Each structure stands twice: as structure tokens, then as C-alpha cells.
Amino acid sequence: MSPGVTLANGGNMQTTLILAAIFNITGGLAILFLQRFIAPLIHFNDFGPGLFRMFVGGTAVLFGAAYIAVWRDYRQNRPLLVYGTALKYWAFAISLFGFLKSDLSLQVLLLFGVGNLIFAVLFTHYLLRPQPGR
With a threshold of 0.70, does the pTM exceed it? Predict the structure, then answer.
């Protein structure tokens, strides 16, 4: 698939992939470069080791680029979407766990956890839906 080619589901997945890429890239860059400014706004007090933040932020940016690759060529890059979907479910699970333990704020749960869950569910729907030519 090349950019601009409509998917069998009417192009909704193209939009979802681009939005997921933006979500991941902006989130990753925020973790890498803006966390100290954004953290007080979302009541996030656990900065963790710098190396950990760099890894997490870099991984988010990398998966944002992966969603662009899937958008450009689904057949070639489908495994990236499968891995990304699993990682998004994991992001929701760990944020829900942190929230339930009272370690994370509701803002972090909604922004990070539920944001990732929405994309995970949309990706799962797309991955499991029979599509001609896939």
C-alpha cells in the first residue's frame, strides 16, 4: 500500500495510523524533552532515571515511525502493527495498575492509558477484520 491508497475499510485505518503516529511521536518527544514542564500539569511526579526516560521516549517515537511505515505499506509492515498493538495494551494495563495503586493521577491514566487503549482497540479491530487482498 502506498500513501493515499484507500484501505478496504474506507480509509478509516489510514487516519487512525496517522493519528497514532502523531500521538506516539509527540508523546515520545514530550517525554524526551518536555517532561519537566508537562509533568506538573498532569500531576506526574515520578521522573525515574534519565536513561529510562530516554528509552521510553525513544521507543514511543520509534513506534510512531512504525505506524507511518504501516500506513505506507501494510503488507510489508503488518508485524509492526501487531507489536504496536500489544505494546498499547501493555501501556494501558500498567497505567491502570498504577492508577489503582494510587501511584498515577487520573490525568495520566486518561492521557496515556486510555489514549493507548483506544488505538489498541482500533488496531485490533482492523487486524482481525477480514480484508480482501491482505
Answer: yes
Report d(CA 1, CA 34) in Å as an integer: 35
Q: Cα(86)–Cα(107) distance, rounded to whole angstroms?
A: 22
Residues 43/108, Cβ–Cβ less than 8 Å: yes
* Cβ atoms 57, 31 nearer than 8 A: yes
The b-or-e profile of 77-111 (16+ CB within 10 A means b, else e) is beebbeebbebbbebbeebeebbeeeebeeebbeb
Q: pLDDT value at position 119?
A: 97
Given a cut of 50, the residues of the chain with pLDDT beneath it are 1-10
The predicted structure's pLDDT at residue 2? 43
Please give the torsion angle defined by the CA atoms of residues 101, 106, 112 and 113, in that order, rounded to the nearest 10 degrees: 60
Residues 6+ apart with CB under 8 A from 7: 1, 13, 14, 74, 131
Can you give the pLDDT at residue 129?
86
Say whether 121 sits in a helix, a strand or coil.
Answer: helix
- State the pLDDT at residue 22: 98
